[in-house]
Design a protein that fits this description.
By secondary structure, the protein is α/β, with parallel strands linked by helices. The chain has 9 helices and 10 strands. A hairpin with a 2-residue loop joins strand 1 and strand 2. Bound molecules: adenosine-5'-triphosphate. This is ABC transport system ATP-binding protein.
């Protein structure tokens, strides 16, 4: 059977800077993959290419055996959805945002699922008539996540989606996503700089350096015994980098 997703020799450069340098990986079964690496290594660029918000310069992505060249981008983006760090709200109310997906794809709006997800993400207090522009950063982030989950994508690309959340909301998001992954058999590629979160969530880890996949490991193995010096340094350095923000 074909792999869920293949990335073959992806290359991308901005001006004279190489961002992705032959990134190659396969997803063979639904799982939660943490995409880890220092800042500026090409993680977000990779996710934007995977959902076709950007084009690679070279290389191929293949979804269930079909090259991206043969699949309409709109159809592709129903299956692979990106939730970015800057949660973009569409104009209008919270409810307008939640209904967008079904309007775009001409599918019925699943009110019950929307309500359940909002409650699970600690947003039960939120007035659905409130203008989306007036939401806090953390509220926007969670509404954007619900909006995307309602599409039930097969592959969900998560770019630091808990970055502006307090501890309680962060754990709520993790629980919702963990349950969702199991129930729906979805695949997540999750960028996080929160190593404890990655330890809690990862079935696999992809460690990226200078645009190449340096390690592709079972989650537990990666955190117990990373096989490259770079990954070992990264794991030791992250808490120090985070604590320096407090100075
Ligand atoms: N549109 C663009 N034009 C020019 N350079 C870009 C563009 N987008 C990203 N870059 C550069 O590409 C490099 C990789 O960026 P990317 O956002 O993919 O890194 P990242 O690993 O996700 O970093 P972080 O962890 O800090 O979010 C960076 O040096 C960034 O400045």
């Amino acid at each position: 059977m074909a792999n869920i997703l293949e990335m073959n020799q992806l290359r991308k450069r901005y001006l004279d800077k190489i961002i992705l340098d032959g990134f190659t990986a396969q997803i063979t079964r639904p799982e939660i993959i943490s995409l880890l690496g220092k800042s500026g290594q090409g993680k977000s660029t990779l996710l934007r290419i995977l959902c076709r918000l950007e084009a690679q310069d070279e290389g191929e992505t293949i979804l269930h055996g079909h090259s991206y060249l043969t699949v309409d981008p709109k159809e592709w983006r129903k299956k692979i959805c990106y939730v970015s760090q800057q949660s973009y709200m569409l104009p209008g109310s919270v409810e307008d945002n939640l209904r967008t997906v079904s309007q775009l794809h001409k599918t019925p709006f699943d009110m019950q699922l929307a309500r359940e997800l909002m409650i699970s993400l600690n947003l039960d207090y939120l007035d659905w008539g409130k203008k989306s522009i007036d939401l806090s950063g953390g509220e926007k982030q969670r509404v954007a996540l619900v909006r995307t989950l309602l599409l039930k994508p097969e592959i969900l690309l998560l770019d630091e989606v808990t970055a502006s959340l307090d501890m309680q909301s962060k754990h709520a998001v993790e629980k919702v996503l963990q349950d969702w992954q199991e129930q729906e058999g979805a695949t997540f590629i999750w960028i996080t700089h929160d190593i404890e979160q990655a330890q809690r969530m990862s079935h696999r880890v992809w460690f990226i350096e200078e645009g190449s996949l340096l390690e592709d490991s079972d989650g537990r193995e990666f955190f117990e015994n990373p096989s490259t010096v770079s990954a070992r340094n990264y794991l030791q350095r992250v808490p120090q980098e985070e604590s320096s923000c407090l100075i």
